[in-house]
Amino acid sequence: MRRSAITSGICLFILAAIFASCAGNPWGKNRSGQARNIDPVVQQAMEKRKKLPAAEFKIYLSMIKQEGVIIPGLFQGMVPQGKAYIEAHRLLVISNYMYTKQTAALTLVSMEDKALKKVLRVYNHDGSPHFDHMGGLSATEKHLWLASGDGVYRVPLEKIINAEKEDVLFLGTPLATEVACSFATASEGTLYIGEFRTRGRRYATKPSHAYSVACGGRNHALMAGFHLDEDTGDIKDAMRDAATAYPSFFISIPDQVQGAAFTREHIILSRSYGRKNP
Fold first, then answer.
1. Counting beta carbons within 10 angstroms of the beta carbon of residue 83, is it exposed (0 to 12), middle (13 to 18) or buried (19 or more)?
2. Is 84 left (phi over 0), alpha (psi -120 to 50) or beta?
3. Residue 58: in which H helix or E strand, if any?
4. Integer Cα distance of 66 and 199 in angstroms
5. Which in 31, 101, 139, 224 has the greatest CB count within 10 A?
6. What average pLDDT values come out for the chain (278 residues) when binned by 10 residues?
7. For residues 122 and 134, is the Cβ–Cβ distance under 8 A?
8. Strand 116-123, strand 105-110: pairing
């Protein structure tokens, strides 16, 4: 993947309020032929009085050079988690789990006119709703990679590009990995899947993932690297089987990492765990 490609990783989603809509808009059918009741998704700007105090995010707001896109679905129960940029089509893809307990969704926004172009409701390969966290997305030349729950999902880009404005996306069977699948990014022909860890049992990692670091202390989480095949764009055959992807290498990372991005000389990690969590 070219270094210029924008992968999922560091993206600050500031959510002031999330509301659930009660109006149903049935479209699409699942594999059993049953219609789904879907709330319509729109781009709706937050009222100024509901935005978070600027003082709390001064360091981040000072970096803004121009207004970005309005994140879709904030008032229809969507909780944005990951993002990826499909450069060839100038599309920003955002992954969302649903506060309203509906199946997860991908929203696609054009970076040319900043308008919402598609909403894809995400279902598992067996037709059941996908309720996992949708924590990470990364777009490489031929695939969209989704890190969600206990697995990594590979979606051919053509399925995303050829989808209707309102459509469904059936995932294939997930690939299990050594790490929990919390976020995703890609750089220089390598896919990275990282895990989120906090103290306590809720987001624990394996004891074997703990490493001492040169600056002192210990990290307890890992980011796994998977070399991609230059021809197929998939994880190399030697590093996977039907159910599991085996990392080419690991990078030790600290707690509470939500995303990663690569520059020529650095790996940038974004960290957060809410303003009230320890």
1. buried
2. beta
3. helix 58-61
4. 37
5. 139
6. 38 29 35 51 77 70 82 94 96 95 96 96 96 95 95 96 97 96 96 94 92 92 97 94 95 96 95 78
7. yes
8. antiparallel
What lies within 8 Å, CB to CB, of 65 at 6+ separation is none
> So what's the pLDDT on residue 201?
83
**pTM over 0.85, yes/no:** no
Distances (CA, A) of 146 to 53, 66, 81, 182, 257: 32, 28, 11, 9, 17
Task: Look at residues 272, 185, 204, 191 and name the one whose alpha carbon lies nearest to residue 236.
Answer: 191
Give me 157's structure tokens: 């880009």
Answer yes or no: are the C-beta atoms of 270 and 9 closer than 8 Å: yes
Please report the pLDDT score of residue 66 as a whole number. Answer: 80
* Residue 241 to residue 250: CA distance in whole angstroms: 19
Q: Residue type for 101, please?
A: K
Residue 58's pLDDT is 77
- Ramachandran class of 264: left when φ > 0, alpha when ψ lies in -120 to 50, beta otherwise: alpha
d(CA 198, CA 213): 17
Task: Show Cβ contacts of residue 119 under 8 Å, excluding neighbours closer than 6 positions.
Answer: 41, 72, 73, 105, 106, 107, 108, 165, 166, 167
Q: Which domains does the chain have, with CATH numbers?
A: 25-271 (2.130.10)
3-state secondary structure labels for all residues of 104-115: CEEEEEECCCCC
Q: Using the structure block, give the residue that is written with the tokens 């879907």.
A: 38
Q: Under 8 Å CB-to-CB from 30, ≥6 apart: which residues?
A: 36, 123, 127, 168
